[in-house]
Design a protein that fits this description.
single chain; alpha/beta; two-stranded antiparallel ribbon; 6 strands; 36% helix; 15% strand
Length: 191
């Protein structure tokens, strides 16, 4: 993604096939912070439109394009929001006290930033959904589920991702990917 946003490579050169039918990826490198700094100080072009411009050239070839971002508000997130129709915000039960939860605070901040960006005309109308992650059927998890379903019922997805208590020890057996349609492999729970 760094080479793409720096215009060092075309989007076609950045797309990598995977062992899975109909699944391609554009990986990122660990030095994304350098790219963010470069974009912040760039004096040419509209930095927030770089990803949209690149994706517009290939989006007809795909049913879905999923952009996985870190939980932050910066130019990379702005790029992702501008070309998105739907934002999925992962929220994990991270505290016994919901009011002090970093996850809930981050979710509220993200929803507020999206709302402000729409109101200010920076992005077009975009849907937001909340995905509850890292659940393990504890009292804390139940409190989170109840809180989110009552406070944000229009946003909360019916699906959730269970906590994976035992990490995958041999990712090479999946060709570097851990994607299986089985609760025992991934912890996915489709409700």
């Amino acid at each position: 993604i760094c080479e793409l946003l720096r215009k060092e490579k075309s989007i076609v050169e950045c797309i990598h096939s995977t062992p899975f039918e109909n699944l391609d990826i554009i990986p990122s490198k660990r030095n994304l912070f350098v790219l963010k700094k470069e974009m912040l100080y760039a004096t040419h072009g509209i930095q927030q439109l770089k990803l949209k411009t690149a994706l517009d050239t290939i989006k007809i070839q795909y049913d879905y394009i999923i952009i996985d971002n870190h939980p932050d508000i910066d130019l990379l997130i702005s790029n992702a929001l501008i070309c998105s129709d739907l934002v999925i915000i992962p929220v994990n039960p991270d505290s016994d006290n919901i009011e002090l939860s970093d996850s809930i605070e981050g979710m509220n901040l993200t929803l507020q930033n999206i709302k402000e960006a729409i109101e200010e005309g920076e992005i077009s109308q975009i849907q937001s959904r909340i995905l509850i992650t890292m659940t393990d059927n504890t009292k804390t998890d139940k409190l989170y589920h109840d809180y989110l379903r009552s406070a944000k019922s229009d946003y909360v997805l019916n699906a959730n991702i269970n906590d994976q208590s035992e990490p995958v020890k041999n990712k090479d057996m999946f060709g570097g990917f851990v994607i299986e349609n089985s609760d025992t492999k991934t912890g996915y729970n489709y409700n």
